[in-house]
Amino acid sequence: MRAPPSTHVRDAVIGPLRSRRGCKTCKVRRVKCGQEKPSCLRCSKTGRKCEYEGPNLGTFSSTPATLSILDKPLSSAPDTVWKERRAFAYYFQHIALFIGGGLEVDFWSTIVPQICRSEPAVWDAIISLSTLFESPEPCPDIAFLRQRDVLLLNQYHRDAISWYSRSMSQVRQRLERGDGDVLVGLVSCILFMCIEGFQGGAAQATRLYCQGVQLIVTLRGQIASGVVSSSKAAWLEDIIVPIFIRLGATALNFSTVPVGALLPDVQHVLTQGFTSLKSAREAIVLLLTETQLFQRVCLPHLLKSDGFQPPPELVNQRLALFGRLKVWHAAFTDLMETLRMKGALSPQQMSTGALLLAYHEMLYVMIGTSTCQLETANDAYLLQFQNIVDQSKFALGASARSDGSQPPLTLELGISIPLWFTSLKCREPKLRQTALSLAGQAPAVQAFYKVNTGARWSHTIITIEEVCAVAMKSTEGLPESTNQLQYSHCEDSDISIFGSDLGSQPSTPGLEFVPSPYSVDSDVDAGTAVTELVPEEARIRPINLFRVQDGFPPGTTDEEIARWSPYREQSFLHYLRNERDPISGAWKIAHGFTPIDY
């Protein structure tokens, strides 16, 4: 793992801070003004006349001014300048410490504020994001409103959108002129994705992500040719690329993004253990990304006829992923023991450790079932699902603010992903519902996806499976095609989606968990799994979300195309289901589609 970039690296990338409200003399001389009143220190020492423009507005570095400016609500701001100053003060006090989690404080609290003071586009993006953070509730699902041509924006959101539009225009103009710093453009891109996530603009955020990846690839080419300095190269690889890989790992759950272009050319091999929880996190993010990409490679093979046997190359890749996960777990265990020897673990270390363990357990299941055709293979991993649920109760503290509440958005690894995975793959009713309930306690937006989107996805799948299971248990034959199920089964409110009594659920005292047995010698045999909790024929495997106007996925019948074509703006969940031939007993794949609000 690379060492964190030093201060001189950051300074080399960002450059000196420019005075936005310094005295006239310092501005003319192009030197940094200390902004002391009534005469700045530089002018006093050199005997120059010191004058300021306009009234004394103070500076953002003044603690009393920052505190007092937050005493008044944004809605009472008398003018645009005051609104901007207040929005930045809110960002610095209430967002920078939490948006990236406890492992990214330096980037959000130091580097981004430094950049925004010399880059107007970043400044505008920061205050736009800050305004949405402070007032996320009045418009919780702009995508929902957009589909219905309804506009319900208050003054907070009108200001945020105005600043966002101004920021995008500035970035676009600088890139077109060719005088923009690519690294500043990448920081702006990260902020833009956050803003789109708040607005429910997952599709727009995905496009921004792809543009950001292209910028990184271009910059890497310039680095290889010696055009870019080594300090900028280190800043790119140590700070920006890990953020993009982490965002891409989350995005792969819902869409196709080119995160693979950012991965190392050679397999990441852990040889010296971890020096920090941050290095452990970066390593498991790489494993998460590669595992999801491996699953996509496996999918076409799983869609083949009965009797599928994974080719040797897939078996070897699966074993290699298992081996690397085992090495990660050993290194993580050593790290936690080292931290304990230095003293009691802090609440932040406890919750971050629990978060990483939850991801470890999820990856263990994902790798173990990656070459299995039947969904019942997941039943062999109830222990891992229980571990995910137990660790998630502690992991929620990793993103919590000082008052215990969750920020409305986080770019850190979120616990909602392992919980969402559990709600999809675990068919034990109590664990499944608990996972969905805990997900409702996580930050509302993970990366640039709303947790409600995943909840609707899970709720839709659970409803379809339960309806089919009940039908199968009440009749001798197979149920009617689930393609005919209407979304009316899944129109409950968000509260009912997340609703479950957690009071009777077990808790884990401390950072302990049942270790995963690394038996990588053979594939999981679905026949040896626990008694089927939901019949295989009733289980579905979600594939993707799509809109009719973007085209139907492979496997769609002419009848289904004719049925759903009129609903061009509607989003659909495409899923697969295994059906057994009543005569031959062979399994075959059936495609299913159901409407879903996205």
From TrEMBL:
<keyword id="KW-0238">DNA-binding</keyword>
<keyword id="KW-0862">Zinc</keyword>
<dbReference type="InterPro" id="IPR036864">
    <property type="entry name" value="Zn2-C6_fun-type_DNA-bd_sf"/>
</dbReference>
<keyword id="KW-0479">Metal-binding</keyword>
<feature type="domain" description="Zn(2)-C6 fungal-type">
    <location>
        <begin position="22"/>
        <end position="52"/>
    </location>
</feature>
<protein>
    <recommendedName>
        <fullName>Zn(2)-C6 fungal-type domain-containing protein</fullName>
    </recommendedName>
</protein>
<keyword id="KW-0805">Transcription regulation</keyword>
<dbReference type="GO" id="GO:0009893">
    <property type="term" value="P:positive regulation of metabolic process"/>
</dbReference>
<dbReference type="GO" id="GO:0008270">
    <property type="term" value="F:zinc ion binding"/>
</dbReference>
<dbReference type="InterPro" id="IPR001138">
    <property type="entry name" value="Zn2Cys6_DnaBD"/>
</dbReference>
<keyword id="KW-0539">Nucleus</keyword>
<dbReference type="GO" id="GO:0003677">
    <property type="term" value="F:DNA binding"/>
</dbReference>
<keyword id="KW-0804">Transcription</keyword>
<dbReference type="InterPro" id="IPR052360">
    <property type="entry name" value="Transcr_Regulatory_Proteins"/>
</dbReference>
<dbReference type="GO" id="GO:0000981">
    <property type="term" value="F:DNA-binding transcription factor activity, RNA polymerase II-specific"/>
</dbReference>
<dbReference type="Pfam" id="PF00172">
    <property type="entry name" value="Zn_clus"/>
</dbReference>
